Input
Amino acid sequence: MPELPEVETIARFLREGGRGQPPLVGARAAGVEVLWERTIAAPSPAGFAARLPGAVLETVGRRGKFLWMAWDAAGFLVVHLRMSGDLVVVPPGEAPPKHSRWLIRFDDGRTLAFDNPRKFGRTWLVPDLQMVVGHLGPEPLDSALTPADFHARLQRHRRQVKPLLMTQTFLAGLGNIYTDEALHRAGVHPQTRAHCLSPVQAARLLEAIRAVLQEGLAMNGASIDWMYRGGGFQNAFRVYHRAGEPCLTCGTPIERIIVGQRSTHFCPRCQSLMKCEV
DNA sequence: CCTGAAACCTGTCTGC
DNA sequence: TGCAGACAGGTTTCAG
Output
């Protein structure tokens, strides 16, 4: 379940607790089990399992779609959920999820499980967080990113805007759902060439990106299929997964096309493809 | 630089 | 019921 709002929701839960569960921050790791070795990107699975026991979880944060956990004596545990990952706190005595790829046992009896049916997720244990997230573009919600900066960054690319927005070195955190929603909100066709967007359109697009992310965050992200954390954003989709249904703005049927190999949903009337000479 | 295809994986749903 | 095919919130690598 992994775009920025979903990852942030998980980080928030580990940090602060919720739904009757206490925070995980403050707990001490007792043991580690690696159930699918290829999920550990660095160090070796054995090194990963050996370094954590005895360490106390101090902080949990997010950068782009990466979730990180800082430990008092073991550095940073960094997780990328990819398509189907989730981090689950299992109460004492309960069984971890069926598709758990690693488990961290805590000395209070709880277990942190990395649930990941499609094995795409990756985990790192590193001394410096930047070793994993250093290549990422700016955080979309960081006010240091101004509309003028955003426009200047768009000007550097001739690509279709949708795949560009999903490129994590360009902007960190957007995925297929929030990109489609933001483009609709901004009235921008997903295949518009990035450098063709005017300063006004760029500002409107940045504003739309922030609005959909904030809306997702306020609803604890989106819950689809087998992944459920109580998120509600799936009930607020305006275009995603709504092919054939009327646009909530103008009533025109939403279309579904493939852009950059990803399923793409848009309103052909609200998001017409404008001419661009340059 | 840009695009598309393929690979990495398992599960669910649809249609015959 | 069985089975094939499409599809899924992501990223990387490679060919053209």
Summary: Helices of chain A lie at 4-16, 45-51, 130-133, 147-155, 161-165, 176-186, 199-218. DSSP finds seven helices and eleven strands in chain A. The two ends of chain A are 38 Å apart (CA to CA). Residues 1-3, 6, 65, 80-84, 118, 120-122, 166, 168, 175-178, 221-222, 224-225, 227, 240, 262-263 of chain A lie near DNA strand C (CB under 10 Å from a C1').
